[in-house]
Specification:
The complex is a heterotetramer, with 2 copies of chain A (about 400 residues) and 2 copies of chain B (about 160 residues). By secondary structure, chain A is of the alpha/beta class. Chain A has 13 helices and 12 strands. With about 160 residues, chain B is mainly beta. The longest helix of chain B is centred in the N-terminal third of the chain and has 8 residues. The chains are: A alpha/beta (about 400), B mainly beta (about 160).
Chain lengths: ~400, ~160, ~160, ~400
């Protein structure tokens, strides 16, 4: 079994784009191959496409071959699309990793795309609502903001987390995204502005929520022993963890404590042979401010219930205990569902290379984790990336 | 250019709400093996399936126990009174079919040992608190399908017209 | 059971054709970087992008050449006359928006070095054969979007009213 | 890298079912675990779900966790859904195989499901049409029947294939499906009946086309060295091939000759270290009669253009050169998109076990291939299964 490296990444500018999903894919594809030496689309033998709901957002299914066609790849080993809602991109990377590890593929592209803006935003909201069990929870309008609203309510109720603590996550991530040229939102916000922004679903204000975003991003995976042929600065995949409980609200483990995240983290650290203290960069799934707070807890950076204090104490900033979302996270960069995990994985590679604005550079980072969650936070996925082969 | 024919074409302007935008479950036995749930609901009973073999209470209703794979399931009445475990109010971003209702409360109700999501009628967000008692309420759609909601006790205690 | 409140609720009966059932592409530059294709079409020209660097003719139109990743593309006029490469007739199973048109012919047309699928107007299945010449035709939707079709030469040669 | 075996399969009755997608999944799940000793849902660490368009057919996305929840599995290693239109199920098996091979998973379920009947069949037809490029080909109503109609037209035009030869495929597969209790269609048809059935899209009559079908099927994968713990009759995955060209009609290789199939077959035989002559059972993608004829050619069983004569000469029958679709194929069993490849993979296992009606039993079979295609036949996938570990 071969170890596997990521040797390149490419991304389209994220945002409310005056572009179709296929325009976005072409932009990401071009950027991807410009990011690597000695490798053209024709060398790629496999493509793993992450896309959450093209059937509805783009009225198009079976996007994997179209993506390949638009970026100039002819898949001759493996091709499929993976879907795991907001984690579709990481699922694509995970399968690419396994297929390169077994030798079924030698050079693989994992690429995500989601076009979320469409003429009628109520229709897009309807689509967001079928990520929960549509017949039993979606029908009650439990889509992303409401399920994280009740999650926040329970966390506040059980642990005393405050709206101000949650707002700090938004402030931090908008600050970093203001320094990230591909980010959807590039304006800083204040705690006051977060608290005064329109209420979406109490206790969540608008700036507690990530935006709707169009985007596409890709990475290239090769066997570790081949990596240096393509770049001086590859990034190695050294571990992963994934855990899911039922997605029907009744069958969630607990609203205020994400047990599946703790189990996924434990497995990720075990397989990577690291501990939480080895993590220098954590690109985590801050779809809502409460999410990032609960991720500090679930990833073991602080105790359960102490996530609010963790940010109040300045711990998740660059230079703190661990740099959380130096990209600006989902909150700042946006959340094009199928592409998000791939944007964030590429961010870790850029950090390792030192190829980011110095205001958000995590100097000397050796280990980065990319965490994504999906659905009612019933499922958590973690990739562990290393600057050195270990 | 003069060689190219132009023709105006027509399309239907309005269509019925398609299945892929209709949140309420199909209830007819042509489409589901758990249509009994909706029959019970029409009679005022919120029920679910319980495994006769291992005792597991299953939500949503099943045809096979996901714990022990037995097919011997029975309908279990969850009662009519629940307790609010958590709630919020939809103020922005409602899906098609619900936009007209904004703002409205939704929540998670502890009832009969389960946690069930539902619309919470008869209250604004500010009126509610965790632990409030709520009562079963049944809504009837124009096409004769039914669904459950809960309402705050205050509303519930009014005489039904 | 007498404790449970029943309430009739209403829903909108008809909605506009949603995006997810509307086959015709969004043509406005708010939604696509290749809106020029549709502007050209409105002026009677069926065009696509051609790479200035490697010469590749790209269909459907691109913003980046999928062969060499150059962004230097130009609009290339495919002409107005094509040749039927293959065809069939939709007799059963048309999608929403096209059910009213059944039966109608569709085919694959060789034009300007490409193979493009399209509606074939002005003929029944039995009237057509592989190799038939067909001419470009442009249809205008009620919302001012346009799309291309082909028609058999016979129809095309009639004077346009 | 570990070799991998399939130790069990389970399936719901295929058909126009008075059941929801979740009812079907539960039926398949129960059957799956009843088919294996010493293994319960709680032992499974990973789930790979094949589903093509639940977002539209069931108005539900993110089905993987719901499937897990409904069959009693708690995924703690790997979970995602794969989508590759009609090949979604085989893509799920392929990823499960890779993940078990690398050791990321030890016991994996690959399960497919599709509920295709819904109140408005025109809506379902619309959904079928977004499998081709919706904006450029779907808009012209190129869905499955028309694209295979023009394929048949070109094959007839270039090679002289006849309607009668195509009808023989339907006759053969309906005969075998009449002996298969899980099949959707269990009535035999005659050549005359095929030719007289209503015209869908000329030259395709109704009985040239597979039906719309609801269904669900699953298999369990474990490392080969563990297989005998669970069954005396495991089946081993020994090779695979996959190849895709663009799906836009302009970018297809050729309508009348499936070059991607030939390349996928070559790779499948190479990786399995077999030749076409070693194939005893071929469960192939007979979505339309013309498809099976072109598969005889593409899989190397006969020369290009001679597929019609191949069936006229009785070669693809049990006892002929190779037993093609002894299950009854898609034509007879039906085509619940995300589940189809898994039904057919399980069929090969049942054949190896001798666990089928004697009228459709392929005695002494050692090698079976499962072939699926998707889209405009632009993509072909082949799994090679062996009764013995090789």
């Amino acid at each position: 079994m071969r170890q596997v490296a990521i040797v390149a990444g490419g991304e389209a500018k994220a945002g409310r784009r005056a572009a179709s999903w296929r325009d976005l894919v072409q932009e990401a594809g071009k950027a991807l191959f410009e990011d690597v030496d000695n490798l053209s689309p024709k060398d790629v033998d496999s493509i793993f496409v992450g896309a959450a709901q093209p059937e509805r957002f783009a009225f198009l299914s079976y996007v994997a071959p179209l993506v390949a066609e638009h970026i100039g790849v002819t898949p001759r080993k493996v091709i499929a699309r993976t879907e795991l809602a907001c984690v579709s991109g990481q699922a694509a990377i995970r399968y690419a990793w396994n297929c390169v590890a077994t030798g079924m593929s030698d050079i693989a592209v994992a690429i995500g795309v989601e076009k979320m803006y469409q003429p009628d935003m109520a229709e897009a909201q309807t689509t967001m609502t079928c990520v929960l069990d549509r017949e039993w929870d979606g029908v009650n309008c439990f889509s992303a903001p409401p399920i994280f609203a009740v999650t926040a309510q329970r966390h506040m109720y059980e642990f005393g987390t405050t709206k101000e603590q949650m707002a700090l996550v938004s402030v931090k991530n908008h600050h970093y995204s203001s320094l990230n040229p591909i980010a959807h939102l590039q304006k800083e916000v204040t705690v006051e502005a977060v608290l005064k922004s329109p209420m979406v679903a109490p206790p969540l204000n608008l700036f507690d929520c990530c935006p709707m975003t169009d985007g596409s991003a890709g990475v290239i995976l090769v066997p570790a022993e081949e990596a240096k042929k393509y770049t001086d600065t590859p990034m190695y995949l050294i571990g992963s963890g994934q855990y899911a409980v039922g997605n029907v609200i009744n069958n969630l483990a607990n609203l205020a404590e994400w047990a599946p995240l703790k189990l996924a983290a434990k497995e990720a650290y075990r397989t990577a042979k690291i501990t939480k203290d080895d993590v220098d960069i954590a690109e985590v799934h801050d779809c809502f401010t409460i999410s990032e707070i609960m991720e500090y807890e679930g990833l073991g950076f602080c105790e359960t219930g102490k996530g609010g204090k963790f940010i109040e104490d300045g711990k998740p900033y660059i230079g703190g205990k661990v740099a959380v979302n130096p990209s600006g996270g989902i909150m700042g960069c946006g959340h094009p569902l199928g592409a998000t995990s791939i944007y964030h994985t590429f961010e870790i590679l850029k950090q390792f290379r030192g190829d980011v604005d110095m205001g958000r550079y995590v100097k000397g980072a050796e280990i980065g984790i990319q965490h994504s969650l999906s659905g009612a936070a019933n499922q958590h996925s973690i990739l562990v990336c290393s600057r050195e082969l270990r | 250019m003069s060689m190219v024919k132009f023709e105006k074409i027509k399309r239907p302007e309005k269509i019925g709400l398609p299945f892929m935008l209709d949140f309420y479950p199909l209830q007819d036995e042509k489409y589901t093996r758990t249509s009994q749930f909706f029959k019970n609901l029409k009679e005022g009973h919120l029920t679910t399936t319980k495994c006769k073999k291992c005792g597991e209470l299953l939500w949503p209703p099943r045809v096979i126990c996901s714990n022990c794979h037995s097919e011997k399931l029975e309908w279990f009445d969850l009662g009519t009174e629940g307790e609010l475990y958590a709630f919020t109010e939809i103020r922005l971003g409602a899906p098609i079919g619900f936009v007209e209702d904004v703002p409205f409360c939704i929540g998670i109700v502890r009832i009969g040992g389960l946690l069930i999501s539902a619309r919470i009628d008869g209250a604004k967000y500010e009126d509610l608190k965790i632990g409030d008692k709520v009562n079963l309420k049944i809504v009837e759609l124009p096409d004769s399908r039914v669904f459950y909601r809960f309402s705050r006790n205050k509303e519930q205690k009014l005489p039904i017209p």
